Amino acid sequence: MRGRHDSAIFQNLGLTLIGEIQHVLSQAGHDEDHAGRAARSIYFAYLGILMTMSNGALPDDVGREQFRDVVGLIVNRPEK
Hints:
Elements: H1 8-27, H2 32-54, H3 60-75
Helix pairs in contact: 1-2, 2-3
């Protein structure tokens, strides 16, 4: 979503959250490239699920379970 004005607070918050997720994934043993891509994917999934829950289209408990599923799918990817 976007308004008429950029919000530095939300932009910085997004970058910070992605960085924190990437750090956790790196500490868990994921290589830097995968950790960065996975962090962005997790962040955008979080935003989508959060917005869907906030408009009442998805119950909170279902949204939380779907988010756990997304993270599990990304983090527990099969090795090549």
